[in-house]
Amino acid sequence: MTPQPNPQVGAAVKAADRAHVFHSWSAQELIDPLAVAGAEGSYFWDYEGKRYLDFTSGLVFTNIGYQHPKVVAAIQEQAATLSTFAPAFAVEARSEAARLIAERTPGDLDKIFFTNGGAEAVENATRMARLHTGRPKVLSAYRSYHGATSTAINLTGDPRRWPSDSAAAGVVHFWAPFLYRSPFYSDNEQQECERALQHLEDTIAFEGPATVAAVILETVPGTAGIMTPPAGYLAGVREICDRYGIVFVLDEVMAGFGRTGKWFAADHFGVTPDLMTFAKGVNSGYVPLGGVAISGAIAETFARRPYPGGLTYSGHPLACAAAVATINVMEEEGIVDQAAAIGENVLGPALRELAERHPSVGEVRGTGVFWALELVKNRETREPLVPYNAAGEANAPMAAFGAAAKARGLWPFINMNRTHVVPPCNISEAEAKEGLAALDEALSVADEHTV
User: Which of 54, 101, 450, 451 is 20 to 30 Å from the Cα of 379, by its Cα?
Assistant: First the structure.
């Protein structure tokens, strides 16, 4: 689709937004949201007719791009057939979505509890773990994001937790492995893995194993920095949880449904959790949907005992129809394999080459279409390009980098001192190279702030 400029409509959309929309995570008078006129595939555009290549996949959810015709048609057909129905009934779209998801989850995660998004999935997974074990505490990593609802925000490790952290939610944080900024002063991945596992076990010992219901981890942390865990770490966590009767929860809200070049990131590590949360890519974000994939043992806990949780829109027919169509499209078009190939053959090599030429790039991390560039002031000291949780003038170098990318038609995903490269899983090689060229130019602006 060719964008058609219509500044008058754009101005009206912007005015209504500023008058009435209350935006997430924002000081309302300090933001200037872009008015979006349309989107297709890997691109979106504004009312001025300027087109952007979306290296954010929305919020890392448009795994098959915008406006895929088969998914749009499935939503339209479902709306004409049965637009909504209460969750206590068996509905074809709901049943089929659950079946298709269960076919792809690892191990015996065969029961699917549907939610409206990832945060609600984490809320319910936590509740299930506590009820299954009869224990109160849940352990999560500092470098993590699990959602903005009450329990999920307390489980979150990043600064968005701070204003809402009650310090009474039964949450204990620990350090997960991250060799580039190792909290364990490790020299290599094996050492980092061993020390991180010992730290987790020590944390459990001092908290009291009989008080710990669950350990929750993002399989590959997303917003916190796309830190792929070292070989053996997730298997080690699985073993620790088994030894102490602790429920192991993997959060695949961002990493799931093809993002890492596998259906689920857990598939890279040969590990099956007891509970797995998902959302985002399950239907490319076309209609809000999330859920919990549940193991046989935990499902059995609620076989004759009611599960005390539910949502009015659990398994909404429109959302489930979109999930069915999305999963089928991903199979038919080989999108999971495409994500793996574009990461291995295009994104990975090109990003590593950019790192060689740009002194602002301290490290490149990722797989599939799930990458992060750690931007630094100094490669030797690894000092971040901006301070932790920087805002205002302190964040000026990252703001300048972001503005440079947008000026070149690339919409970047920026968090703290990192830019993430997270385009749709079905981005073409030509589109990827277009975005990488714009990123190359924008990184020259970040280089100006190095020492």
Answer: 54
Burial zone of 34 (CB within 10 Å; 0-12 exposed, 13-18 middle, 19+ buried):
middle
200 φ, ψ (degrees, to nearest 5): -65, -45
**What's the chain's Rg over C-alpha atoms?**
22
CA distance 319 to 34: 26
Q: Are 364 and 371 in contact (CB under 8 A)?
A: yes
Q: What is the DSSP letter of 344?
A: I
What are 44-51's contacts with CB under 8 Å, separation 24+?
44/411, 45/3, 46/3, 46/10, 47/5, 47/6, 47/7, 47/9, 47/10, 47/11, 47/13, 48/5, 48/7, 48/10, 49/3, 49/4, 49/5, 50/3, 50/409, 51/3, 51/409
Phi first, then psi: give them for residue 434, nearest 5 degrees.
Answer: -60, -45
- Cα-to-chain-centroid distance, residue 363: 20
Nearest-angstrom CA–CA distance, 127 and 32:
38
DSSP code at position 12: H
Total number of residues shown for the chain: 451
- From the CB of residue 146, how many other CB atoms can be counted at a distance below 10 Å? 32
**For residue 4, what pLDDT is reported?**
86
Nearest to 46 by CA among 17, 71, 24: 17
The parts of the chain modelled with pLDDT lower than 50 are none
Residue range 62-78, pLDDT digits in tens? 999 999 999 999 999 99
Q: Which two tokens stand for residue 133?
A: 């074990």
Inter-helix orientation angle 396-407/429-447, to 10°: 140
Quick check: pTM over 0.85? Answer: yes
Q: What is the DSSP letter of 383?
A: E
| Complete DSSP assignment for 416-440 | TTEEEE---TT--HHHHHHHHHHHH
Q: What is the dihedral of CA 298, 303, 309, 313, to 10 degrees?
A: 100
Q: Is 177 within 8 Å of 227 (Cβ atoms)? A: yes
**pLDDT confidence of residue 381:** 97
pLDDT, position 435:
98
Q: What is the dihedral of CA 316, 252, 61, 324, to 10 degrees?
A: -40
Report residue 4 as tokens.
């058609």
Write down the residue that tokens 């740009």 correspond to. 358
Helix runs in 139-188, H state only: 150-155
